[in-house]
Amino acid sequence: MKYLSLVPLVFIAACGGSSGSSNAPLDDGTDQQTESESESESESESESESESESEFEPEPEPEPEPVVSVLTLDNHADIVDKVFAIFSGKLYGDDVITAPDYPDPTYYRTWPIVDGDTAELISQPADIVCENGGTLIVAPETTGFHSDNLLTWHFDFDSCQYDAILFDGQLATSIYESVNIVATDFVRDDQSKVVRLTGALGMRSGGDIYSFWNTHDVEFSRETPDSFLMIEASNTSFDYGRGLTGKFVVQADWTDGLRMSVDVDGVINPGEDTGSLVLSFDSGNVLSLNAETGDVDTVEITVTADGTTSTITQPWSTWSDSFIFQSESRL
Question: CA 28 to CA 17: how far, in whole Å?
Fold first, then answer.
């Protein structure tokens, strides 16, 4: 009996030992797994948010490149020389004075033919189908008397190819006391040089040089594999020995491809102390030429470059050649 009485006690003791922890949840590893997953998800979300934020972070702006002045005391004489050569026509005249330079002998550097007695036109209009299927309409015109008349060729090109040269646009060229050209979107492309012209030009030769060059709302460009020249909004007047005036905008390889504004105040004429010339870039790089020095043989040059202004005196003779336009292809 003694041994039997011990069995319930042992059982009770065993149960009592387990009852001390009966109110605590069973630790089967599920809670730890859940916490681990939560932490992992939290870290993943944090990393995702961090990556998302980094994707939308603006890239740092690059440092602005320093502006290099085009006009300096070292090169000013050459640039002013080219500017004066634009006024006189020397820098681009040979590209336009014989325009359109259509190679057909009937129209190449010739004028319409009129009857010397009646002043009636002998040259006839023509509708031409070009080699590539483009077209050219030519119309001669004469105004005035047979001994004192204005002769004009009107050319209307529509993608017209002659040999390797492509023509487009409209151009009228006339002669009386001077040669006058009026063009609208005219293009001549000979595969080595592309010339574009819009606006009106007037020119007159005296002896071996062109003594008069006038532009009205001219837009001109010339492109070659090695160089380019663009003249915009040109309204100028040049009369050799009497002076020049006007303004335009020029962009070329010698302006580092930047647009340079050219403006003459008054009339500039070598040998006279009147007028001034200003060349300017948007960067603040400016050159002014002041002819009112009290000495008819010199001008005052002031250049502002890189925030520094310098002034020197130059003789007019520095640019004497730029006023003399002797054409290589004159009519």
Answer: 20
Cβ contact 236:248 at 8 Å: yes
How would DSSP label each residue in 52-73? HHHHTSPPPPPPPPPPPPS--T
Q: What is the DSSP string of 7-26?
A: HHHHHHHHHHHHHTTTTSPP
Could you read off the pLDDT of 12-44 as tens digits, one per residue?
A: 333 344 444 444 444 444 444 444 445 555 555
Residues 6+ apart with CB under 8 A from 135: 127, 128, 129, 157, 158, 159, 160
In the prediction, which pLDDT does 63 show? Answer: 64
Sequence-ordered alpha helix ranges (H) in the chain? 2-19, 30-55, 76-88
Is the separation of the CB atoms in 77 and 314 below 8 Å?
yes
Query: Using one digit for the tens of pLDDT, what is the confidence trace for 145-155?
Result: 766 789 999 99
The whole-angstrom separation of Cα 91 and Cα 249 is: 14
CA distance 205 to 185: 26
Tracing tokens 């050209």 back to the chain, one arrives at 181
Distance in angstroms (rounded) separating the CA atoms of residues 267 and 152: 32
| Residue 305, strand partner residues | 308
Q: Say if CB 197 and CB 183 are below 8 A apart.
A: yes
Q: Are 88 and 240 in contact (CB under 8 A)?
A: yes
